[in-house]
């Protein structure tokens, strides 16, 4: 086992994020259930299975437990962190890979992104004040 390689907070972070990933890929599987017999639907199901296997291997290798539900504090904090990283990609300068960016776009779009980032930071801070107990 490799559990000695992780500190307590690192173990919690790893377990929280892997738990959220598992939940999200299970949603993908449900959303794609109408395509279950198509080649792409089968490929999605196969990939979800592989992702879940990899998550299980990390749990096994690092002796992570997920017998308890992820506390609201960690769940909300993790979601805020993930979206903070993703919202940055919505800035005008980052949209160039999706086509020509209008010269006036940054002035109109980026203030919204700034406000979203500020709100997500506040969400993460609010989550940190929640009790470290299960939902």
Helix content percent band: 55-70%
Task: Please give the alpha-carbon distance between the first and last residues.
Answer: 29 Å
Low-confidence stretches: none
Form type: globular
| Class of secondary structure makeup | mainly alpha
Percent in strands: under 5%
Helical run tally: 4
Count of β-strands: 0
| Radius of gyration, whole Å | 19 Å
Secondary-structure element order, N to C: HHHH
Average pLDDT, all residues: 90
Major β-sheet, in short? none
Count of domains = 2
Description:
The protein is mainly α. The chain folds into two domains: 59 residues; 57 residues. Helices cover 64% and strands 0% of the residues. Helix 1 packs antiparallel against helix 2 and helix 3 packs antiparallel against helix 4. The model has no long low-confidence stretch (mean pLDDT 90).
Please give a handful of descriptors for the protein shown.
single chain; 135 residues; mainly alpha
Question: How is the topology of this model organized?
Answer:
Blueprint: H1 8-31, H2 39-61, H3 72-87, H4 105-128
Helix pairs in contact: 1-2, 3-4
In short:
This protein has 135 residues and is mainly α.
């Amino acid at each position: 086992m490799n559990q000695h390689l992780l500190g307590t907070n690192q173990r919690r972070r790893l377990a929280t994020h892997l738990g959220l990933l598992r939940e999200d890929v299970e949603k993908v599987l449900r959303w794609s259930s109408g395509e279950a017999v198509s080649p792409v639907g089968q490929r999605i199901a196969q990939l979800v299975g592989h992702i879940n296997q990899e998550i299980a291997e990390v749990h096994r290798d690092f002796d992570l437990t997920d017998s308890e539900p992820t506390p609201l504090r960690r769940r909300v904090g993790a979601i805020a962190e993930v979206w903070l990283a993703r919202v940055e990609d919505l800035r005008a300068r980052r949209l160039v890979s999706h086509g020509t960016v209008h010269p006036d776009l940054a002035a109109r779009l980026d203030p919204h992104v700034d406000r979203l980032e500020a709100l997500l930071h506040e969400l993460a801070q609010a989550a940190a004040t929640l009790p470290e107990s299960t939902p």
